[in-house]
Design a protein that fits this description.
single chain; about 130 residues; mainly alpha; 2 strands
């Protein structure tokens, strides 16, 4: 299922917070990675943050077919260890987001490997900016 332009616009406007929770233990290394990215690129006006990566991942990566990441196992294997832990992400959205999109976001949260998309987005960013992890 692909996102329509309308859905992408709604997500840009309405997805404003993403909470990270971890199934086994808090992933300190992933936290430190984001902190390092923040420090290294704090002059970047767009800001480097978990929420930005999550929104970018939802808007961009997740608009493609959900199984795309399975074709990229080599990329996943080359992730820094701290990015490989299983984790869950919950999406909170504005109340006035239309019902159809709200259902769609819940469906994404339940069925798609959201954590992997976020990690892939982070990994692509690291590659582009040549960040040393």
């Amino acid at each position: 299922m692909k996102l329509t332009n309308r859905q992408q616009e709604y997500i840009k406007r309405n997805v404003h917070r993403v909470n990270f929770t971890y199934r086994n233990k808090y992933d300190y290394r992933l936290y430190m990675l984001f902190r390092k990215l923040n420090e290294q690129y704090k002059k970047d006006h767009t800001g480097i943050s978990r929420n930005k990566f999550v929104k970018d991942a939802i808007i961009n990566d997740m608009s493609s077919e959900k199984d795309d990441i399975k074709l990229d196992k080599e990329v996943y294997q080359s992730f820094p260890e701290g990015m490989k832990y299983s984790s869950q992400f919950t999406i909170s959205i504005n109340r006035n987001t239309d019902r159809e999109l709200y259902k769609y976001l819940l469906e994404i949260e339940e069925t798609q490997p959201l954590a992997d998309y976020i990690r892939l987005a982070v990994y692509k960013y690291i590659q582009e900016k040549e960040v040393v992890v």
